[in-house]
Amino acid sequence: MSENVPTLSDVAAHAGVSLATASRALNGSARTVNPALQERVLASASALGYSANVQAQAVARGTTNVVALVVGDIADPYFASIASGVVRVADERGLIVTITATGLYAGAASVEREQAALTALRGQRPRAVVLAGSRVVGAEPPTTRRERVAVVGSGAPGLRSVSVDNTGGAARLAHELRSLGYADFAVIAGPDELVTVRDRVDGFRSVAGEVPVEHAEFSRDGGHRAMSALLASGARPECVFAVSDVMAIGAMAALREAGIRPGEDIAVAGFDDIPLVADVTPALTSVALPLADIGARALELALSDDGGTEDAAPVAAEVRLRASTPRR
Question: What is the pTM of this model?
Fold first, then answer.
């Protein structure tokens, strides 16, 4: 018997069974083991302090009890909220979540990083994969093999997806802002090649008209840079729509640095309604998405056996007006 970490051979010898029988009893093979032998093997494993090899279990079962979540940036509250929903469903089903962040890229870099992550995960044989990064306009969806994959958002034909009404939500926001008396708008947005960005910009413009758009990174710092560039151009819109809340928060900081009062001199609105926006000053008007529920739906869809490629209906977005866009 090994003097160090007990092996599967040690367990088999202790239980008086073959190595193959011990492997089937501990690694979850589809081939059944006599209940008495199974109990004997489990008792030996416990007595020796043996821990089953996860990779061996994956080979025996063809999968593991792990689900994988691929996001753009785990520090972003948008992705963190989606992750909470994925974790909730996984916990209910006795599964473990691993999270991989591809970084806030755009264009070919986003596609390559996501595909590289999916390829690396393939060796771990996850039960399912949820892809929550924004899709790239015109890009081919990631190549999958045996994986059960679900995508958050549109732009991935042929894959199971939980679509979000980004276009309609942005249009409803523009309509609400017009009803408050705003007529002169500008938009700050992430990279134009991202499907989420383009959908939100198009939706807002469908009501507000061909308003100017300043693009930057899809982040707080990107929002700060875009707002600063907009001010440097001489623009002084009545209201700025940022296509994400984190960009809106960066925009508000840039306004203050320029001596402009957010919500008083220039109104600001965002999108996503991440938890902290009700606590910033002034409280941020936003378009609410049930982000945790979206994550939960995505994992449920990825794990489902019905073979469908799309969730039943797009997730609705709801406008929430706050102090950052007072009536004019």
Answer: 0.78
